[in-house]
Write a structure and sequence with these properties.
There is one protein chain. The protein is mostly beta strands and 249 residues long. The chain folds into 2 domains: 106 residues, no CATH class; 104 residues, no CATH class. Helices cover 0% and strands 51% of the residues. The protein is globular, with a radius of gyration of 18 Å.
């Protein structure tokens, strides 16, 4: 009965199902507060759901088995206090420490060499009580900052290997990352932030890695009309450690 902002596939032990998050309070006529499950034939709620919108979903195994993680603007999940991020194990919701002081808008799983971790982006300035500007890392037990973070919203996260090894890429509203000038897009290699050329002249809302037959590349979507010093409107491609020009993209 309202917006859907996030999708993820997760197996809670009963087989893979599609999970959706957003601003809705019903799914298929069933009461389902901001999150619901589709098993291929019917909708089901996940407990009592959330008290505010869900903006991002991701599956992550913190060592105790895969679970579904949800981020958004909520402060309660399944009746449990959970500030903007929560974990669903297939039967109940749990908080991730004290959570964030503002919205979580993006989630991704990335291994920086120390093992897989869950990364969250948004417009928060603390995570688990730790100063973390718009991006933070959850290792299964605690939150950590990624350097000094960003000076504005992180709206998208993706993992991509540009030939130098997998790295975490962030897109959003920001113009600095880790104190370095980075216009709406930046790369985290596990220890520091780096720019991607001149970046974009306006917001980045989505990121995805894709191989179109010419090798893996990172695709960005957003409100921009210029990307990496070229007039690419709304969608652009980055690969092989540089911007790749593709006619018609």
């Amino acid at each position: 009965n309202s917006t859907v902002s996030a999708l993820a596939v997760f197996d809670d032990g009963g087989g893979p199902a599609l999970y959706i998050g957003g601003g809705f309070t019903t799914a298929g006529g069933v009461a389902a507060n901001r999150i619901a499950k589709w098993d291929g034939s019917s909708w089901a709620a996940l407990g009592s759901g959330m008290n505010d919108f869900v903006a991002a979903l991701a599956v992550f195994d913190d060592g105790g088995g895969p679970a579904l993680y949800a981020g958004g603007g909520f402060t309660a999940a399944g009746g449990v206090a959970a500030n903007r991020i929560a974990r669903w194990d297939g039967s109940s919701w749990a908080a991730l420490g004290s959570g964030m002081n503002e919205r979580v808008l993006a989630l991704a799983v990335f291994d920086d060499g120390g093992g897989p971790a869950l990364y969250a982006g948004g417009n928060f300035t603390t995570a688990g009580g730790v100063a973390a500007n718009c991006i933070a890392k959850w290792d299964g037990s605690s939150w950590a900052a990624l350097g000094s973070g960003m000076n504005d919203f992180v709206a998208a996260l993706a993992v991509f290997d540009d030939g130098g090894g997998p790295a975490l890429y962030a897109g959003g509203y920001f113009t600095t990352a880790g104190g370095v000038a980075a216009n709406r897009i930046a790369k985290w290699d596990g220890s520091s932030w780096a720019t991607l050329g001149s970046g974009m002249n306006s917001y980045v809302y989505a990121l995805a890695a894709f191989d179109d037959g010419g090798g893996q590349a990172l695709y960005a979507g957003g409100a921009f009309s210029s990307a990496f010093d070229s007039h690419d409107s709304y969608v652009a491609k980055w690969g092989c450690r540089r911007r790749v020009r593709q006619r018609g993209l």
